[in-house]
Amino acid sequence: MRVAIVHDYLAQAGGAERVVEAMHDVFPDAPIFTSVYDPEHTLPSFKTMDIRTSFLQKWAKDSRIHKFALPFYPAAFEQFDMTGFDIVLSSTTGFAKGVITGPDTCHICYCHTPARFAWRYHEYIAQGGYGRATQQILPFLIHRLRAWDYASAQRVDYFLVNSHNVARRVRKFYGKTSEVLHPPVTTNRFAVLPSPTADYLLVVSRLVGYKRVDIAVEACARLGIPLKVVGTGPDLPRLKQMAGPQVEFLGRLSDGAVADLLANCRAFLFPGEEDFGIAPLEAMASGRPVIAYGAGGALETVVDGVTGLHFCYATAESLMDAIQRLDGLDLDPARIRAHAARFDVSEFRKTLKETVERCVALHHAAYSHVSPGHGPFPGPRAVVLSNGSSGGVPGGNGNGKGHYSIGGNGGGAMTAPPLPVAEEPVPFPDPD
To answer: pTM for this one?
Structure first.
């Protein structure tokens, strides 16, 4: 079968891009369709992949222009020709799910969150970057984009989401059920040190208002505790003004430098409410505890009293209390890392492959019921996605570049097990 991957834009190196990278590991011959591609500011691995861009590539590649190109993204994705692809796997926080597919194509969307600009407008505006005149016009534009966002979600056959937190939003905003597949963490990039220095707290984040890095800066300044902040963003000048001498802003660092800081920190601070949040899991993969605001995705990743602590209120005082409570806990670095291993990229690849197989089987069954005995899927068939290319899922028997095999014996109505309903997070297991 022919598979296509679609992503909003490849112009930064964040968690969403690592999800696309892992998707491509499972389907290594799949082309990646995206609005714009900036190889200098995204993951280097994309340079070896088949990247296909939209008309926006000519003038909107610069990250400073992305926001101002909002009205053009729907057309950019609707103009992609998905003819001939059996599976479309989109990764989105906004626009990639808007590609148009035919009834024989199974469209599976991995939704990192419903579009923040459409459904959490005031939070989006708080990130900054818009002048007063633009802010007066923007609500009228967002009104139209919100309608398009809802309509484009109805084109998706199956939704995967990165957390139960996002599953609730997909249900509320789109009226769609979804299955939770936590995003991947490459745990082998991180190591537990036998004797970490543990003499500073650490934040790794884009410096925008809703990340609430200001809470961490204020708390550490008032406690007189060293804090290192990795990242850049429009909130940097304000944060520097409120920081004391113990707060150090390090800017953008390499993956290796960040891994070293994670391995040696006293604890990782995660002060904002996030859809999921990969950075805390990277800290836990280094054996270091996480102090997180007790909301959103952190409730699914940070086990209070085992892998770190939650603080209840989005205030510096609440975070200060949690920092002081940390000293009274005896946390096991090996157990913290074992928890992070549950989210490893190998688990993501395995589960994604199995889930795509089930979705394709369900899709074929649904359309065979519409027109029994007709079309290319007479069923029943066991859907097995496999390929023989290096870098893919091992054990395949690929039948050509960009194709994945479906096996079966035909002859009757097709059946497939239903997708499971998203369950609540599994409690942290006791050690053997």
So the answer is: 0.80
